[in-house]
Amino acid sequence: MTTKTLHPAGANPGRSRSHNRQMVLGHVRRAGQIGRAEIARASGLSTQAVSNIIADLAGDGLLLEGERVSSGRGLPAVQYSLNPAGGYALGVEIRPDVLLVALLDLNGDTVFSRRTPLVDTRPEEVTAQILTLRKAALTHAGGDPARLMGAGIVMPGPFGTASAAQKGLELPEWSDIDANLWFTTALDLPVFVENDANAAAMAERNGGAGEGVSHYAYLYFGAGLGLGIVTNGQLMQGAFGNAGEIGHITVPSGNGAVVLEQAVSRLSLQAHLAENGIAAATSDALAQLYDASDPHLMGWLNQAAEPLTHAITTIENLCDPQTIILGGAMPDQILDHLIVACALSDRSVSNRDERELPRLMRGRSGRMSATQGAAALVLNHSFTPRLTPH
């Protein structure tokens, strides 16, 4: 059987200007600083084409010209790097009770973040708060509003599967709203709408555990449990944006078959603690219980290990990732405990002797991973041209 290899390569006459700009920006981002000839060799573009693109990018304020570096014969080559203040990406996470916003610069560094209570989740009210926070973010960063490259919007999934009553939407007021069209119009920006697990997965590519990893799965602990799947550096979204709804699958457990997120999720843990008279509404409260070796929390961890192990084996065999990353709104101590507690199956394609990465890792993006990931969607679009078959 013949397979097609995907190459994010440039082409001199036939590719779009946008594609080649993304190609050059991506090479500069990965290298930190790089010369025109190196970009040309890596991208397949001619040196003249690269020179023209760099001139455009520098003129747009996206690149900085640095020192000259000698590499053998010829004149020393000018090195180019990203201008951090050349562009900004806005990330917005909408939860039923809170609105989170982050502003990233072109290097992917967070220059502003804010968490604010959300009392009214109607589209008009949410949008008004986002506009206020966008203004505050740009003012704090001292950024030109014209430098805002786009906005990533994160909302709980699944999308477009049934009526609000049937699926118990966390944001029922949005059930009949085309969120992409709504926010594109309201913010007057390019907008990328994603579920929280996908956005968090992209956050890990931006300086997190997924940086430099082409194929990985991200198991996201939000209120429930979601899965972001990254392959060739791109999200796998599915026909309707619902790929990775891992929390809905049925897995074995010590108490028989269970729906995964009813056994392994933050809501599952909090419900278990509430049944035993313990209120733990925040990650800090959960971390304190873990540090105190609370017997009820430890009991839940023991119960969660088996269904989580089955889910991980399923992900490995279906997706063949380089690694699976665990992260989100769960304390690091609990994630580390779950990673150790999983009895990883040897009946998995990931059970290989030669591995560059462990089968399970904890993410590094923290509790605002989905918010930062929303902004990272904008940066990823700017730096990563779509893969094409050759």
From TrEMBL:
- Report residue spans for region: Disordered: 1-20
The record's Gene3D superfamilies line, in alphabetical order, gives: 3.30.420.40, Winged helix-like DNA-binding domain superfamily/Winged helix DNA-binding domain (1.10.10.10)
List, in alphabetical order, the GO biological process terms annotated in this UniProt record: N-acetylneuraminate catabolic process
SUPFAM superfamilies assigned to the protein according to its UniProt record, in alphabetical order:
Actin-like ATPase domain (SSF53067), Winged helix' DNA-binding domain (SSF46785)
Tell me one Pfam family matched here: ROK
| Membrane spanning residue stretches | none
Q: Tell me, what is one Gene Ontology molecular-function annotation carried by this entry?
A: N-acylmannosamine kinase activity
Q: What is this protein called?
A: ROK family transcriptional regulator
Give the organism, scientific name: Actibacterium mucosum KCTC 23349
